């Protein structure tokens, strides 16, 4: 499993693709947070990173599918999946090896944003920030990225076309993140069902963790969604 993970990381960072993904994430966030007046944290008036944690999921919604789209699709297209299956590794080891490599890339993508905390703390008049809320938001952001990674890996495993995998993955992430919240706003569900429909979406649990409260129900939700998509990916590989 770890040999697959190491192979994926070497392949990802052997070209400019890996570095471009990280730079793209930091650049887009930097433009919105420090340059554009409508979303600049300088114009907000408070020492908070709420703007970053509102923006980051939308960037990850397209960045993560771009990272995962070739994970299994290229294996099918190039015919190397059959060779991989001849190795003494199980389908779970293949999936987890690729999944952990994606998580490491995402961790390396998110970690540099810690400089935003130092920037806000330095610019704060009193030098204080809501450390608990920011820590909870970072945990929620990484779990959100992990869910998107599981979705992207599953979508990459159902087609040999990387572009198709990207489109299906991005659409699936959008539906799971925002779709249930939008559905709950319909007047038809105003009789009390709206709350439960909203709970089925990722956005509900992400916003809950962004308040700095680590609720076991939110953690269980994220881990359950990740497991379901990884299990589905493994089942699909058995069919292959």
Provide structural commentary.
With 240 residues, the chain is mainly α. It has one domain. It is built from 13 helices and no strands. It has helices spanning 2-13, 16-34, 41-44, 50-68, 73-78, 80-85, 91-110, 114-123, 131-156, 162-184, 193-199, 202-210, 216-239. Helix 9 (131-156) packs across helix 10, helix 9 (131-156) packs antiparallel against helix 12 and helix 12 packs antiparallel against helix 13. The longest helix has 26 residues, at 131-156. It is globular and about 60 Å long. The model has no long low-confidence stretch (mean pLDDT 83).
Primary descriptors:
mainly alpha; globular; 13 helices; 77% helix; single chain
Unreliable stretches: none
Largest sheet: none
Q: What is the end-to-end distance? A: 19 Å
- Beta-strand segment tally: 0
Mean pLDDT: 83
Count of domain modules: 1
Order of helices and strands: HHHHHHHHHHHHH
Beta content: under 5%
Oligomer: single chain
Label the overall shape. globular
Please give the count of helices: 13
Give the helix level as a range of percent. over 70%
Structural class call reads mainly alpha
Overall radius of gyration = 19 Å
